[in-house]
Specification:
With about 290 residues, the chain is an all-alpha fold. Among the domains are: about 110 residues; about 80 residues. About 60% of the residues lie in helices and about 0% in strands. The chain is built from 13 helices and two strands; from the N terminus they run H-H-H-H-H-H-H-H-H-H-H-H-H-E-E. It has a two-stranded antiparallel ribbon. The longest helix is centred in the C-terminal third of the chain and has 33 residues.
Length: about 290
Amino acid sequence: MSLRLALLLLLVAPLVPLSQRRIDGLVGGFRAQEDVLYFWSGEHVKRLVPGFESLAADLYWLRTVQYFGGQRLFAKGKDFELLRPLIDITTTLDPRLEIAYRYGAVFLSEPPPLGAGKPSEGVEVLERGVAALPESWRLRQDLAFFHYIFLNDAETAARVLLAAAEIPGAAFWLRTMAADLAASGGNREDSRRMWRQMFDQAEEGIIRENARLRLQILDSLDLADAIAGAVAEFERREGRRPARLTELQAAGLWRRPLVDLANVPYCYDVGTGRVFIQEASPMWRPQFSPGGNR
């Protein structure tokens, strides 16, 4: 991105939410069905802006972020229909715009309502980035993480991490993590290490906040397991399971609040002794629902 455009975007970006709120006041809010993408091919756009492809890519990327934010905050259906075409146009115009691959993959992969819930497409975007930027070990790292976190494919994740480790300047820990994944087949601690790495590396913004949320989800799952352990201890002592979780506190087996990191009370199945996150909680994810905890 040129310095001139960077300064322009720096000045314009803070005005986007203000303009959006004014538009919402006039037309009644964001309506995804009125959002039309006139050019569905990056090659078509390239032919219209010869010599200005990088500038067009920056503008399309700004449009992509605005579209994603509008869908996430205002749209009811949240189908993110135009997200992948916008990302593809941006990266066709500037194949070396790394941020578009990394953030675009997050936008596509996160489950609704936070994202499009299309992790396979997110992986495809990262694979396209790896092909365009073979010297970027961070793109390969993200590709490995997405294979593991979203597709539950520890074998492929380990293989991609080893390939990333071969790139000059790559992080020293990539080989160790690859070996751990290959040996264990994946577990919650591996996931935690990956999200921690993403959090530590990312600048303030969507990727960092997404990693922070994922770490909180993992902590909430650990708390649910610890409470379930207290339920098992109560049953060992009393010969029955507690009728409700508050009995654990009365028995001195649990001293903390019985809530997840979003301050939402845990669900409890007295028939099985399972403790799990409420679906209404921001900490809930379908892969961590009863029967799906990893």
